[in-house]
Every structure is written in C-alpha cells, then in structure tokens.
Amino acid sequence: MEHHKDHPGQVDSYLYGFTFKCIPRTGPLIKHPNHEAITLGRGVNGLWVEPTPGLIIGKLKTWMNVAKVTPTRIPGYWTHKYGPTITVGASPIDGEKVLYHLHGGAYVRLSAHPSDFTAAIPRGILQHTDSIRRAFALEYRLSSSKPYKVNGPFPTALIDALAGYCYLVNTVGFAPKDVVMAGDSAGANIALALTRYLVEYQGQGIDKLPQPPGSLLLLSPWADLGISHDSMPTASSLQFAESDYIQAKGGIDYARNSFLGPFGLGAAVRNPYISPASLDPSLSIDFKGFPRTFIVAGGAEILYDQIICLRKRMTRDLGDEVTYYEAEDGIHDYLVFEWHEPERSETLDAIAKWV
Fold first, then answer.
1. How many CA atoms lie within 13 Å of 331's alpha carbon, on the beta-carbon side?
2. Whose CA is closest to 332, among 270, 246, 265?
3. How far is the C-alpha of 162 from the C-alpha of 195, rounded, in Å?
4. pTM assigned to the model
5. What distance in Å separates the CA atoms of residue 271 and residue 284, rounded to the nearest whole number?
6. Which of 14, 159, 247, 354 has the smallest count of CB within 10 Å of its CB?
C-alpha cells in the first residue's frame, strides 16, 4: 500500500483497529481537510485564525525554537445550533457561552472540519445544551515523522490552540469565563496544556495573555504519552486491548514519536505539558489555578488507568471543582460514535447539566 507522503495521518493500512488490504499504488483511502486551506462545503463556516507570536513566551517560546516551528495562520470552523440565525464570528450577547473544541486523532490524523466524524462531539453538545448556541473548532497542525515529511512536533498544536483561544477572547469578544474548552483524546491533551500555559503565564506577553477558560471538558483524555501505566498485568491497556478499537502498540508508537519530535521519549515522562498523568517520580505537577473540570472516561477503554490518575491529581488540587463521569461499557472517545447508545446521550445530558 502506498501512503500519501505529505499527510500520513490521512491513510493507514491499520486504522482504528481494523486492517485493510489494498492493491499497491491505489492512492489515499481517506483525504481529510487540513491546516493548509479552508475546505468549503454546504453549511461550512470556515475562517482564518491569525497567529499570536507576541503571546508565546517563557518555556513555550523555548520549546518552539528547539522544535524549529513558527506560528502561522490556520483555519477554524464555526458550528451553530440548528434554528437561530447567527452571523459567523459575531460578537457574543451578554453572558453567552461558547464551546471551543480541539479534536482527537493522536496528533497525527483527523480534522476540525464539520465533515469529520469528531464533529459529532460539538454537534452533540449543541443539541443537548440549551446554554450554548455555537461551537468553534480549530484546525491545528498535525504531527508527522519519517518515513513521511517531518512536520508539526510539540509544541505546534499548542501554539495553534493558543491562537484559537485568543481569537475567541480577543477578536470575537467572549469573556474567558464563558468559554467551555473541550478536547477529546489528543485534543484533551492540548486543552490541558493550553490551560496550564494560561495559568502559569497569566497576564504576561506583549499583548497580555487572556485568563484561563471558565470550564474545561476532557473527553477520554490522552494524559500520559509515555508507557508508565502499561507495566501492570491488570493495566487497562492490556485488559481492554480486545474490546477497544485503538491499540497500545503499533500506530500509537508512530504518533508518539511524531509528536515528541526532537524532545524524545523523555519528554513523555517528565513534562507536565505533555504527560500530566505520568507515574514517573521525576514528574512534578499540580493543577492549582485550573478551572472547573468535567472528565469523561469509558469504562472499557485502554486509557482508563491514566484517566483515573488524572482525575485523582486534579481532585487533589481542585476538590469539588472536578466532576467525573464514567460510562461503564464506553470505549475510547465514544462520544464521536452516534451509535454508541444509550451511553452517548446520557453523557451529553450530564455535560449539559454541568455546563
């Protein structure tokens, strides 16, 4: 099978636990929208988000220079609740909440475009939550590595996510307290890293960094990019390997290496921006200053152990500000699967009450 060299996340002979046999040189199986262009379509509300180089300071600037990445403009897509007419990018009404969604895909695949299956998350939240009329999803740059073109290692997605957040607050005019920042899987990893950056560097930078969001929604968060949770015989990565559709080996190794880039596997052990649930004793971490948080886990997903670890650490610092919801038979990131009922609707209802 021949892969598309520029966008390796778009084609894979082993995709989400299913193996495909293809005739050589048939070309890409799946072609996703990406950060290079706004992909048009019926009802698609896309626009360009400008970079925020003046807000990249401290550790983030150092990491950016090491990785040799630069800020750039990227697409974002608005999704509106069915019914009311809302101008794209219109200023919020007083007290209006907005969902800021960062999609999953192990940092190497999928898209913020409304046609992507991860769009089922913002669409579902809009359907179930009366207090949110619109959602904004950011087409952050994906990571890739050899044998493909090397692109987008850490902290590329974090830099892009910062630009998207600043667009909502500084350009559209949402108050930080009214932003519900949501991420699923790798997107939740970005949401955690962005919140940490906003907390640690509050009020700094040439243009003054905005305050953290008022709420954080973490859906099946990928919270340990290392393997510290995989060594026990009862590890969820082993226990649920047959029932979950993602695998702890194989493609995840490519995703991990692509994302970590020049920082190597050591960063997945001790960097709180990358692995806030790492069990390695060298990791020093707390969640002081983080907003109220809702964590969702599937009881049958391979990331279960690290999600529980993340919940414990956040609860230690935030107490009752952390709400945890578990779907007993849920697989990883089950909210993207509209057939995953009744767990999906029950979870969306719980999120709506929390919002």
1. 16
2. 246
3. 9
4. 0.90
5. 8
6. 14
